[in-house]
Every structure is written in C-alpha cells, then in structure tokens.
Known about the structure:
By secondary structure, this protein is α+β, with helices and mostly antiparallel strands. The chain has four helices and seven strands. 31% of the residues lie in helices and 29% in strands. Strands 3-6-7 form a three-stranded mixed sheet, with no helix packed on it. Strands 1-2 form a two-stranded antiparallel ribbon. A two-stranded antiparallel ribbon has the order 4-5. It is globular, with a radius of gyration of 20 Å.
Amino acid sequence: MDFCGEKTLPLEDEYEDKGTWIWIIMAANCRLVLSHVIGERSQKNADQLVSNTAKKLRSMPLFVTDGLKLYTAALRKQYGKLQQFAPTGKRGRPRSPKLIVDEVLKYAQVIKMRVNCRLNKVVKRIIFGKNIDPRMISTSYIERQNLTCRQDNNRISRKTIGFSKKTAELDNQMTLYFAHFTAKSTAL
C-alpha cells in the first residue's frame, strides 16, 4: 500500500518557513528570469533577491508579487531613503528617522482568497506607486514559469531519483536551467 503525502503550507500569519524555496524574479514582458535565490522563506532571502535584481536593472519596473509581506519589506529596504528630521528645539526625545519609499517605485500584489482550499476570489492591491494599470497586475507568467520549471526539472520533483538534497547543487542546476530557458525563449 502506498502513502502519498503533501507539503504542508505555512499559515497565513506565519511568513517565515524553514523549508527550501526557490525565489524567482522574472521580467514578464520578455520572460527573462532576472534572479533567483534558493533557501528558506525568510527576510534575508527576500532582501538578497531584490538586491540582486536591483543590480541588473537600469530603470524601475513594476513589481508584482503574491501577498507575502517579506517582499514589501525587501523593496522598502532596497528602494527606500532614510529621512532625518531636524531638531525641534523642544525638550524630549527627537523624532526617529523614517524610511521613505522612492516615489518611482511601483509595487502591487495579487492575493488569492481561498475557502476550503478552493480559490474564492482574486484581489489586486497597489502597495507603492501611482498610475498603475490594473491589467498589468498579474502573476500568471511567473506561475506558468513555476509549472514549466517543475515539469522540466527533475531536481525539484519530490520522490524522484534526481531530487536535489543539497541546496548548492540545486542552485547550480537552476542557474543552468534558467540560462537554457532564457536562450530557448528568446530564440522563438
């Protein structure tokens, strides 16, 4: 008799997870994977992903993610500026500096509401920026990329002989996979 288990998903309130996740940033218009990070679902990895991507960009794109709060903090940290307040001359503690997000940053979220594990509705939420076309707020390309990656790549399929147990080996293989995927999709 076989038993087939499923991966437990973190609860909505728990944003950090000790499992291994593949974080991907993709330019949707050309289906180019700009950066990826493999590791825990933590603020450190979200910061690293956004930082790696910022080094590769010349202009500010529209960032669209799921509802994970780690992305908001990472974008604020990367594209924020520390605003110092002048002393007021009054007694008491001076105002603490505040992290202000750059006005050109555009960031939106696609949040999927589920009832009994079934999709109930999809909410699009603008977090930073103005004049964002609601039709541009979509995660369908990255979701399609994740499915293609899972189908093409034996290393991320559980219960297979090719499953990666070491994250360093998985990172090397994913770098090669994304380079191949990019070359293949640009040739079309």
